[in-house]
Amino acid sequence: MNEVALKPTSSPLQGALEVPGDKSISHRAVMLGSLAKGKTSITNFLTGEDCSRTIDAFRQFGISIEQDGTTVTIESNGPEDFQEPSEPIYFGNSGTTARLMLGVLAGLPFFTAVYGDSSLVMRPMDRVTGPLKKMGAQLDGRSGGIYLPMAIRGGALKGINYTMPVKSAQVKSAVLLGGLFADGTTRVIEESATRNHSENMLRAFGADITETNGEIRITNKNALTGMNVHVPGDISSAAFFMTAAAIVPDSELTLKNVGLNHSRSGIIDVLKQMGASISISNVQTIGGERQGDVSVVYQKLTGTIIDGDIIPRLIDELPIIALAATQAEGTTVIRDARELRVKETDRIKATTDGLANLGANIEPTEDGMVITGGASLTGGKAEAYNDHRIAMMLAIASLVTNDDVTIDDISSINISYPGFFQDLQTVTNSA
Ligand code: S3P
């Protein structure tokens, strides 16, 4: 346990900050770099624990992966040379490693056993094993095949047409990765757009992939070729600081080189809709991924409604958006976000319990929450439920409370943002 008591500090956030590399893109860069023939160099790689799980997984196939801080170098001859792992593969807390790797393992012609930590073994995997079984892979796991630990015998896949029953980029990506190994065409049809980093990067590595009107098609025609990948800053990490600057009076903060892919940038739209003053500059597109600097100047917020197609574009930001809503005049309603119930923890419960303990007027609903804002929070004790995004949201809350915020355990923050507290100190002390 790593409990902290954070003193209330209403010091404004000032200056500029560069948050670590994007978690989703870092995972995918290791996966595609390992599946590609030749050398792949990744810069600004996220050194958090989740992405290390993906590196370790590919090392178990015999791939040479060197890491020097945020630079990762992969040398591979492609999947034909992968060796059957002699030990089970550990995915830790990482849902992205687990779900995307199941797509890869389904395509590899050997046996693998996989497992995860106490949170990951409670997260549903049947959403990916369902379509992968239709493609011809053999997968089985706990509780009739729903949960890890799981055993996979892959190979001899056939393309399928798959209409997504859940709005999940992890599911889409698992099917597309299976499609890289499958005979024939694999089609994935999605009703609402989810993050498209897999599609962007598969295209950049040379895969035969096309997309029209929400239908993505992939074949096994082209082998992937190694390349250089530069990972943009993670908008999901920047979100904590954008929100902090939007709710602490007198703040004026710039987050530099943040990923601005449209399928991820819903938080900017919502904060603007709530009245935040946000401007974007220095925009460029590298490897199909838009990035730029995001500047936030404090301005009073008002409540809003968040539902429908924007939800997948900000799914990981809903806990911190809920905190913003506690500081906004009026009521904020979040709907259509049932997926929050199956994240690292039940994030509807964790967010509403946590903020209620700090004095917020917040109620859970089946698929979201209702927040009545406009008052400062008292402070108090709250649980992070071993979830990195809940722990960081509670830490940011201490910038707007009257008393201490005590968080039971902050060690989960290493999953996605190892330098979070140093960065928080830098921007709150530079005033
Ligand atoms: C991710 C997709 C999202 C997100 C997760 C990362 C990805 O999950 O919550 O943190 O990298 O594809 P779902 O696909 O389950 O919505």
Automatic annotation (TrEMBL):
The keyword Phosphoprotein does not apply. The keyword Lipid metabolism does not apply. Its main location: cytoplasm. The active site is at residue 316. Residues 10-424 form the Enolpyruvate transferase domain. Keywords: Amino-acid biosynthesis, Aromatic amino acid biosynthesis, Cytoplasm, Transferase. Phosphoenolpyruvate binds at residues 23, 95, 123, 170, 347, 389. Its EC number is 2.5.1.19. GO terms for biological process: amino acid biosynthetic process; aromatic amino acid family biosynthetic process; chorismate biosynthetic process. GO terms for molecular function: 3-phosphoshikimate 1-carboxyvinyltransferase activity. It holds the Pfam family EPSP_synthase. 3-phosphoshikimate binds at residues 23-24, 28, 168, 170, 316, 343. InterPro entries: Enolpyruvate_Tfrase_dom, Enolpyruvate_Tfrase_sf, EPSP_synthase, EPSP_synthase_CS, RNA3'P_cycl/enolpyr_Trfase_a/b. It catalyses: 3-phosphoshikimate + phosphoenolpyruvate = 5-O-(1-carboxyvinyl)-3-phosphoshikimate + phosphate. It is found in: Cytoplasm. One of its GO terms (cellular component) is cytoplasm. Pathway: Metabolic intermediate biosynthesis; chorismate biosynthesis; chorismate from D-erythrose 4-phosphate and phosphoenolpyruvate: step 6/7. Catalyzes the transfer of the enolpyruvyl moiety of phosphoenolpyruvate (PEP) to the 5-hydroxyl of shikimate-3-phosphate (S3P) to produce enolpyruvyl shikimate-3-phosphate and inorganic phosphate. NCBIfam families: aroA. Monomer. HAMAP family: EPSP_synth. Belongs to the EPSP synthase family. This is 3-phosphoshikimate 1-carboxyvinyltransferase. The gene is aroA.
